[in-house]
């Protein structure tokens, strides 16, 4: 049973957009593009590399299934398109080029991000130098700030959804995957249970109101992962992960943060705070001194200021069991089932304090 609130005007679930400008062509896309391989896949989508025959330009085609679990999900796909359209002037968001429809899928032809996911840099033996991480986090914040200015929240920010325009040297970031994004404000409060356990904010687990601050938590998780190579809340199973998030159980030990500047730790501490209202906004984050340390770090003669190799082994946090397909699905529509499955009796206050 769903308790999702409906917008009285559109009849859509709260926060979903229904109007698009991009025409959806029913012409076979193979007439226009040559499909040359797979770039990634989720539970309901496959993303393929394709080349526009006439121009030779490379794009990423996201094939989204219209029916999921016997339910017509065309509205969700249209919403994803509408969000991409709203973010069209946001340079940090992947551009929507065209759309096609087949019997089973709607295909979004997207700007191609050739450098892959920043996730690869989190799990690589060779972590990025801190100056590069600062640049990528600053760009991510720019993109998020821009979205928030339009009252859009992404709600699925994670290293798999932040791509790079080129791999080596790392290019600029492009935010992808707006399947869970929502428009705030139209019909009052938005509460939903969605996202990916390791990356979601406590308010999502507690079925509390979603705000722009929810995305800032995820930026904190991404920054943590880039600097340490570890996922801060990943437990051995889903239950443990939820508990870690709910209790803001984060390892800030010297061991985890070897060769990472104090300012990086300070930045992350200020985002991984349980109360959403105590987290800084994207704009406030951009003025944090860590993000203005780049030159100092680049020019530092201290070889420990950049980290050519990860200090810690991939260790326990990455050795978590293979992804549960349910996690990929992202929606747990009934807050009652949520309450039963993820009940937390103990709550601790978040570490960190103060404003920037
Ligand atoms: P899902 O909703 O299934 O998670 P995403 O939009 O996140 O779908 O795409 C899945 C994966 O496909 C991404 O994590 C990324 O690896 C790859 N991908 C998506 N969009 C692009 C793109 N524009 N360019 C290159 N790779 C992409
Ligand atoms: Mg994704």
Automatic annotation (TrEMBL):
PROSITE patterns: PROTEIN_KINASE_ATP, PROTEIN_KINASE_DOM, PROTEIN_KINASE_ST. It holds the Pfam family Pkinase. It comes from the Eukaryota. GO terms for molecular function: ATP binding; protein serine/threonine kinase activity. Residues 303-356 are annotated as: Disordered. GO terms for biological process: intracellular signal transduction; positive regulation of apoptotic process. Residues 33-291 form the Protein kinase domain. The keyword NAD does not apply. It is an enzyme of class 2 (transferase). Keywords: ATP-binding, Kinase, Nucleotide-binding, Phosphoprotein, Serine/threonine-protein kinase, Transferase. It catalyses: L-threonyl-[protein] + ATP = O-phospho-L-threonyl-[protein] + ADP + H(+); L-seryl-[protein] + ATP = O-phospho-L-seryl-[protein] + ADP + H(+). GO terms for cellular component: nucleus. Belongs to the protein kinase superfamily. CAMK Ser/Thr protein kinase family. DAP kinase subfamily. This is non-specific serine/threonine protein kinase. The lineage of its organism: Eukaryota, Metazoa, Chordata, Craniata, Vertebrata. The gene is STK17B.
């Amino acid at each position: 049973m769903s308790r999702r609130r409906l917008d009285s005007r559109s009849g859509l679930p709260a926060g979903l957009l229904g109007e698009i400008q991009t025409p959806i062509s029913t012409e076979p896309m193979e007439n226009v593009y040559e499909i040359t391989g797979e770039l990634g896949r989720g539970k309901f989508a496959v993303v393929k590399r394709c080349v526009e025959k006439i121009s030779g330009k490379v794009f990423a085609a996201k094939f989204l299934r219209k029916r999921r679990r016997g339910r017509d999900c065309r509205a969700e796909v249209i919403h994803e398109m509408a969000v991409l359209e709203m973010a069209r002037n946001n340079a940090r968001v992947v551009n929507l080029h065209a759309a096609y429809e087949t019997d089973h899928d709607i295909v979004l032809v997207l700007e191609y991000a050739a450098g892959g996911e920043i996730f690869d840099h989190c799990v690589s033996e060779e972590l990025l130098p801190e100056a590069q991480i600062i640049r990528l986090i600053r760009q991510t914040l720019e993109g998020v700030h821009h979205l928030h200015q339009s009252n859009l929240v992404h709600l699925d920010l994670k290293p798999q959804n932040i791509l790079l325009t080129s791999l080596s040297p790392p290019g600029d970031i492009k935010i992808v995957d707006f399947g869970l994004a929502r428009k705030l404000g139209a019909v009052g409060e938005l509460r939903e249970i969605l996202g990916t356990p390791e990356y979601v904010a406590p308010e999502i687990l507690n079925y509390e109101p979603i705000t722009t601050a929810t995305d800032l938590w995820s930026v904190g998780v991404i920054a943590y992962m880039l600097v340490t190579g570890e996922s801060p809340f990943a437990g051995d199973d889903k239950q443990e992960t939820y508990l870690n998030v709910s209790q803001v159980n984060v390892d800030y030990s010297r061991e985890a943060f070897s060769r990472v500047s104090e300012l990086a730790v300070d930045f992350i501490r200020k985002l991984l705070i349980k109360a959403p209202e105590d987290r800084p906004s994207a704009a406030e984050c951009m003025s944090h001194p860590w993000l203005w340390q780049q030159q100092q770090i680049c020019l530092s003669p201290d070889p420990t200021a950049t980290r050519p190799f990860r200090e810690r082994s991939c260790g326990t946090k990455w050795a978590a069991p293979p992804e549960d397909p349910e996690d990929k699905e992202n929606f747990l529509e009934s807050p009652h089932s949520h309450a039963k499955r993820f009940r937390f009796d103990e709550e601790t206050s978040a570490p960190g304090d103060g404003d920037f």
